[in-house]
Amino acid sequence: MEEIAYIPSPSRGVIHLGPIPLRGYAFCIIIGVFVAVWLGNKRWIARGGRAGTVADIAVWAVPFGLVGGRLYHVITDYELYFSAGRDWVDAFKVWQGGLGIWGAIALGAVGAWIGCRRRGIPLPAYADAIAPGIAFAQAIGRWGNWFNQELYGRETHLPWALHITSSEGGRIPGYYHPTFLYESLWCVGVGFLVIWADRRFKLGHGRAFALYVAAYCVGRGWIEYMRVDDAHHILGLRLNDWTALIVFLLAVLYMVLSAKKRPGREAVVEPGVIDGEAEAGGDAEAAEVKDADTSADVAEADAGAGAGAEDDAADEVKDEAGSGTKKS
User: Fold this and answer.
1) Does this model's pTM top 0.70?
2) What are the pLDDT tens digits along the chain (328 aa)?
3) Which phi and psi angles does 149 have, rounded to 5°?
4) Which of 101, 108, 117, 133 could cross-link to 39 by cystine, CB 3.0-4.6 Å?
């Protein structure tokens, strides 16, 4: 195979800036979160919400999601941390990889629910706004697996094969399907699909989020089938394949039932927001405009009152002059 006919792996996944380690995996997660919040904010404003609300709720959702993702990974691959010869402390080393999207979404939704409840916002509307951003965040986050040389597929000699060079953790150097890249591209497609469908069909009440979940599960199913890393199997299928199948069916069922019970979109997604207030700084700008208009009205009224007083005074002087003439 020619050297240009494969995807190279990075020689290392961490760079030390003095005593500070800069890890590629962590950077991918952080960038993904920023993209999700940025896009979610734009979509939330377009739906009639306030600027900054998505970020405020993300303060709850992101930590819960990280904990949930790690818990799912540790529970489903417990032998990596609690079997003979393993160090259980490694279960806390998130930077080494190992975040299960299923746990991240589940527990992240709990955090988002807490944030939404504190603001009186319906969780389904918030989920619809951030759905494409989550897909794009996953697309970026999957490149963290590339930095760690993990979660690749079966051996292949295709021109886009991934060249694994590390032999740590039982890896065998060679050329493999870049499943991280397949899932990254799939997630990009899912994000654009949700954006298109949301504009075309005016999805509401959590259906845009459900579409994201269903579409992701379809891709995760065939990509998971290609992977060769150790995993629990049930009836010949990897655990994550069964998870993807069950979650897909639940997402489709939700879309069908939700469309019948609550067709259309929410008329109001954030209480207390008036028309035109959703833009960044909208509250302050609206107040300034209102104050300016009020001041102008007062000034105009004062000017009118002053002019009226002058006219009355002139008429009074004229009347007195006329009276004096008649008396003389």
Assistant:
1) yes
2) 445 578 999 987 888 777 888 889 999 999 999 999 999 999 999 999 999 999 999 999 999 999 999 999 999 888 888 888 888 888 888 877 788 999 999 999 999 999 999 999 999 999 999 999 999 999 999 999 999 998 899 999 999 999 999 888 788 999 999 999 999 999 999 999 999 999 999 999 999 999 999 999 999 999 998 998 888 899 989 999 999 999 999 999 999 999 999 999 999 999 988 655 555 444 443 344 344 444 445 444 455 555 554 555 445 544 544 444 343 3
3) 55, 60
4) 133
The helix (run of H) or strand (run of E) holding residue 185 is helix 179-201
How would you label 183-208 residue by residue, b for 16+ Cβ within 10 Å and e otherwise?
bbebbbebbebbbebbeeeebbbbbb
Helix (H) or strand (E) holding 95: none
> What does the block give as tokens for 209?
């989020």
DSSP string, 156-182: --STT-EEE---GGG---EEE--HHHH
Q: What CA–CA distance (Å, rounded) separates 112 from 133?
A: 15
- For the residues of 214-260, what is the DSSP string, one character each? HHHHHHHHHHHHHB-S---EETTEEHHHHHHHHHHHHHHHHHHHHHH
